[in-house]
Amino acid sequence: MLETVDLVDHPHSGAVIKVIGVGGGGGNAVRYMTNHNVDGVEFICANTDSQALQQCGSADPKAASQPKVDIMRMGNNTTQGLGAGTNPEVGKLAAMEDKDKIVSALKGTDMVFITTGMGGGTGTGAAPVIASIAKEMGILTVAVVTRPFPFEGKRRMKIAEEGIKELAESVDSLITIPNEKLLNLLGKDAPLTQAFAKADDVLCGAVRGIADIIKRPGMVNVDFADVKAVMSEMGMALMGTGSSTGSNRAREATEGAIHNPLLADVDLRGARGILVNITSGTDITLGEYSEVGRIIEEFASDDAIVKIGTVIDQNYRDELHVTVVATGLEMASSVAKRPVAPAHVEPQHAPSRQANSYEQSRREQPSHHVEYQQPITRSQSVEPAHPGFDHREPAPVYEAQAPYYDQRPDQAPAHVQMTRQEPHRQVAAQPRASRPLTNPGNFSQEVQEELDIPAFLRHRRN
């Protein structure tokens, strides 16, 4: 259900929003934001590397004006300003050493964005500490981080995954940007500098899309309390963006944001909160606003908190830009990774499967069924291919009892009964012989008929 629209004409919100770039990747993101006019927020660079901090605070000569960036060097005693050496434990100790400095920097803040590139030492280790401090201070804490590119190595990826898990426990919402998908978008021939710049651009877009709703004047009032309702205590989150021009720009931009590759693993129907930012010029119509809301409502669950705000930017001519942030969701890929239960094999007294499932059943057979795929000869016995597989001791082939697969229909491969084009006959339960036959060569025809052993197991006399 769409909420009442309040037309407003007021100055910027009084909410204090800060962005802390942690480590080298976070510092690069802060520099990118200050060079691309992210308004209404204050910036802090936190690092253990003195040289990297100097670069973070340097101004871009091409930029007309830049906001001030506060510098915070962490862990003077721990690292002596030389960095964490890709060791998250060092980054963690450095942040804990300067806890008082972090508290002082965050005092009076309503919302903080913690941005970093996961996989390094300072960002991976210090970001969870900073997030915990912010949460303890009652600050709405949102982390926007990147996973490493595949070419950065498996070790860095492992460090990043462990850091993301720890960070998720300390923030209200965690937006993770998968750099691998950015690489797929750019193509393998893209320059390396372009790849990292694109990652910074996505980080910048996530922060800008949320901060603009709160800080910049618009026609639809979505205030800080609304944003807090969508993002507080929500856990995993992702974002997508879309832009378009022309008569169908509202629909195309919204669908582009929803189907954005960065949201490819997300089902919006599982989101508990959806925050939407529409940025356009003064020519946006009520019909276009309603169109965006209608499309979002189609994808959102009935219980989701949906907040849609607009920002008017005089620099936008015919373009309309939509940012969608989905919070409180579960990744679809995590569902796909859940262990799949073994395929159930119907007992032989049940109706046979459809014939067209035969080839599929062959492909799905686990490796311990391989020996069943050949006729059993006199010298063979039924042995499981994997000793660790849960099974009972198989009976000798010529023991005076029903065949092994008739006793254990739950382990008989589905295609065994398909090897004969004869109607299936029910096997009556037969009493076990007092002792196994010691001379299979004298196995009588009468006993074979009495036990109703399938023809392909019978051994005729020469």
Automatic annotation (TrEMBL):
One of its GO terms (biological process) is protein polymerization. Residues 16-218 form the Tubulin/FtsZ GTPase domain. Signal peptide: none annotated. GTP binds at residues 24-28, 121-123, 152, 156, 200. Residues 220-338 form the Tubulin/FtsZ 2-layer sandwich domain. GO terms for cellular component: cell division site; cytoplasm. Residues 339-393, 414-450 are annotated as: Disordered. It is found in: Cytoplasm. Residues 436-446 have a biased composition (Polar residues). InterPro entries: Cell_div_FtsZ, Cell_div_FtsZ_CS, FtsZ/CetZ, FtsZ_C, Tub_FtsZ_C, Tubulin/FtsZ-like_C, Tubulin/FtsZ_2-layer-sand-dom, Tubulin/FtsZ_GTPase_sf. It comes from the Bacteria. Keywords: Cell cycle, Cell division, Cytoplasm, GTP-binding, Nucleotide-binding, Septation. The keyword Nucleotide-binding applies. SMART domains: Tubulin (SM00864), Tubulin_C (SM00865). CDD domains: FtsZ_type1. The keyword Translocase does not apply. One of its GO terms (molecular function) is GTPase activity. Residues 360-371 have a biased composition (Basic and acidic residues). Belongs to the FtsZ family. HAMAP family: FtsZ. PANTHER family: CELL DIVISION PROTEIN FTSZ-RELATED (PTHR30314), MITOCHONDRIAL DIVISION PROTEIN FSZA (PTHR30314:SF3). Essential cell division protein that forms a contractile ring structure (Z ring) at the future cell division site. The regulation of the ring assembly controls the timing and the location of cell division. One of the functions of the FtsZ ring is to recruit other cell division proteins to the septum to produce a new cell wall between the dividing cells. Binds GTP and shows GTPase activity. Homodimer. Polymerizes to form a dynamic ring structure in a strictly GTP-dependent manner. Interacts directly with several other division proteins. NCBIfam families: ftsZ. This is Cell division protein FtsZ. The gene is ftsZ.
